[in-house]
Amino acid sequence: MSLGNCPRCGKLFAKGFKNMCPNCIKDIELEYEKCLKFLREEKTATIQEVSDATEVSIKQITKFIKEGRISVADNPNMMYPCEICGVLIYENNMCDSCRNHLTKAFTNKAREGSHSQGTQDSQSNPKKGGAYGAVDKFRNS
Q1: Count of the separate structural domains present in the chain
Q2: pLDDT band for position 28 (50/70/90)?
Q3: In which residue ranges is the amino acid composition biased (Polar residues) (predicted)?
């Protein structure tokens, strides 16, 4: 049995199946129940309305959605923010626009990588080339 600090509260606990202390797991389950109860009564609620009514963070509600615990199909207005630009989306981690920009950036980087100059730059400075360079270029623009 190994010990670790809970990433949520920082307390020391015996690690088991979950990477969180039992108290935080209980708290998250209570938050989930609050959200579920509210959504049963208000099926058309937005993520902001659920957060305001239940005092559960949007980040935690988003985790519930991504884990499949809260269904977007049953609650049509439950959209969560794109991880890059913050636009509200129904599925995945990023909106179509950000996905298209990222795809173009990867394609352009791949083309640059096929040239000898691009390859030398990537080898001499790993932050300049590769997938991370494309992501950083996208985030800075």
Answers
A1: 1
A2: very high
A3: 115-126
